[in-house]
Write a structure and sequence with these properties.
157 residues
């Protein structure tokens, strides 16, 4: 019997910055390497800014690099961006959510929803705690990057 449970890996962080400022940082594709470890993101030439943007993320070192072509297929600024992962290794959906919090703060949530079945799905279920940890590391780094860019933001503890 094949287990078709949806695997969802998620991490959230509260940020001492407005929704708009957080959204701008999250969707600055070329700057994502500042907060996503071992990653560079390139926007395909001529690609639109939002809906339909074609992106290629490269994560890793040398021959251990994963190439992740994506397309932005949901664009609802400044709150929701979704991408479809079209790679040979990374497939499924990535979701960035930015929600307003009191006092001009925001909450960033990153979800990854792989499309995997059979043995690949079993491997992803086993690896999901590592993926959750990695998303959490990136989300916390994003919070530091966003608040460091805003000299008026309160310091985070």
């Amino acid at each position: 019997m094949v287990d078709h449970r949806v695997i969802r890996v998620e991490a959230s962080v509260d940020i001492d910055a407005s929704v708009e400022r957080t959204w701008a940082a999250v969707t600055d594709w070329a700057a994502q390497g500042e907060w996503i470890p071992l990653t560079t993101v390139a926007v395909s030439p001529g690609s639109p800014v939002g809906l339909g943007a074609q992106l290629v993320a490269r994560t890793g070192i040398g021959p251990a690099t994963i190439v992740d072509p994506m397309e932005v297929d949901v664009w609802q600024p400044p709150h929701r961006c979704e991408v479809a992962h079209h790679g040979r290794i990374v497939t499924g959906r990535g979701v960035f959510l930015v929600d307003a919090l009191p006092n001009g703060r925001s909450r960033f949530t990153w979800q990854e929803i792989p499309e995997s079945h059979g043995i690949r799905g079993a491997i992803e279920r086993v690896g999901s705690p590592i993926s959750r940890w990695a998303l959490g590391v990136a989300a916390r780094k994003l919070a530091r990057v966003v608040t460091a860019a805003d000299p008026t933001a309160p310091t985070q503890s």
